[in-house]
Amino acid sequence: MAEVQLVDIEKKYGNFLAVPKQSLTIHDGEFLVLLGPSGCGKTTTMRMIAGLEDITSGDIMIKGERINDKPPKDRDIAMVFQNYGLYPHMTVRQNIEYPLKLRGMAKAARKDRVHETAKKVELDELLDRRPSELSGGQRQRVALARAIVRTPSIFLMDEPLSNLDAKLRVTMRAELKHLHHELGVTTVYVTHDQMEAMTLASRVAVMREGRIVQLDTPKKIYAEPADLFVAGFIGSPSMNLIDGAVKDGVFRADGVELPVDLADRDGVVLGIRPEELDITQDKGAAISGNLYALELTGESTLVTLRNGPSSVCARGHADFEAEINSPCHLAPKAGARIHLFDRATGERLG
Amino acid sequence: MRKTLSYLAERALLVLISIVVLFPIAWMFLTAFKQPRDAYSLSLIFEPTLQNFVTVFSAPWNLGSMVMNSVIVATVTVAIAVPCATLAAYSFSRFRVKGRKFLFFLILSTQFIPAVVIVLPFFLMFRQLDMLDTRVALIIVNLAIVTPFVIWMIKGFIDAIPTDSEEAAMIDGASRLRMIKDIVLPMAAPGIMTSSIFCFILTWNEFLFALILSRRDAVTLPVGLVSFRTERGDLWELMSAAGVMITVPIFIMALFIQKHFTRGMTAGAVK
Questions:
Q1: C-alpha distances out from residue B235 to A325, B220, B221, B228, B261, Å
Q2: Using one digit for the tens of pLDDT, what is the confidence trace for B98-124?
Q3: Does any domain span residue A349?
Q4: pTM to 2 decimal places
Q5: Do A85 and B165 touch (CB under 8 A)?
């Protein structure tokens, strides 16, 4: 177990600033997810913790010890790579055994540990196969087994589920969650999939252009996004973001009139999540437009309506049916959270 | 009908090319088993003999010592060049050092210099060092010739290996050297093996430097062949027997290369 501290770390590639100066503390036993779109610096940050990338400035501390100059092998970490990073010339058994072998564990003890770990990830039947003889999911489990076989101080996981099909991803996600609960090891997990972040994390660090724009629990990030970027990035379908202005305590845009608690100003973006909108027959409802699309997801129907440039999505009952282009009205549910952002800066207004 | 004609023309062309390519080799193999009187005959019917092989291994030809010289020079050259070249190729492939591309080009550019231009400086240098007609001198020269080539070849193979497995090994607890030994070498093994064999063939067939730098003790097989051009004329049957001795090991190696060319070692490492 270990606490990881990133103190004013910065990473430059020549003149390109990949990760601007910032600090982050990952608590002991925490499951921290670095979340953001491709190229936002999340993998670079993780690779700096691993020792696979040099840091340009700042300090990385593990268990209070500065480890900037320590090679990866001396950092007591285990990492699961996006592309597995298996040893193709070794069998599954040898792949899992390798970290133990490097640490000089006795052969008999190694054998027991490998068997025990393989059983944990349901690979015990495949120990004598080579990676080329395994499916994507099985290879991913080998990579996972190799990481958990020696109980390191920190787990680093770089988009470990991104190469799996949707069904397997859900299964493996549950396995990861269970493993973290069982082992209690500090884990840093990189993903661009906000669903993974929300389901796995104790805390999520949302990153944009190398910077952490919000660091909080999944619940808080979902309920109170720090800015326009986080608001649009978290949630599936994403939050409705409507451009408009506030006048006399009412937010106005094409087909939208919603009372808000904000002084008069232009350039305001109103955010409301699809699941916090009700479809109504009331012609005086806050949001009106014509039905643009109906998407059945199974448990619900996504209803999109349009009015001018504004497009608003609501999550309706699975049985909801209506004619495309027919008038449609939406109203915020009781207690619905209305978010307001400055269009120019993206900052949260209320 | 047209298809059949084009098929036949294609086959005929292939047979013709094969004859042109294989005829000298076949002629050499046949001549090696001919008696001197049949050497210039193109007939396939002759009384075969092994006497030529016996003759080339006896005085004054003593092919045995030349075989030994060739084997030692080629083997030691490979044994030194390949490990050094592998480490150099790994560094060129993986480390982003300033001037890396220029340095790599510099190493490769040594291959552009015609051998005949540098043979005299080598001769003078080894004469000064009193190393003329020694295997060590030939090994040094061959190392200079083959190492850049092998670095370039092995780098190509290492470039094709995904870095994920290497990084995984370093995180698993391996030092850089241990990781190279445990992960990179097995994954690059087919490429390294192929490069080693090419390196061996280059050294085995090297003629110019061996001709200038050896006289009696360090003479290698290709140079030894020249000694069959005597005042009595060219002794083709003996030259062919010696030619067979040079060619057979290379044939065996070519078969070995083919086996390694057909399979890669990186399957399954990454997605």
A1: 98, 18, 16, 5, 38
A2: 899 999 999 989 888 888 899 999 999
A3: no
A4: 0.79
A5: yes
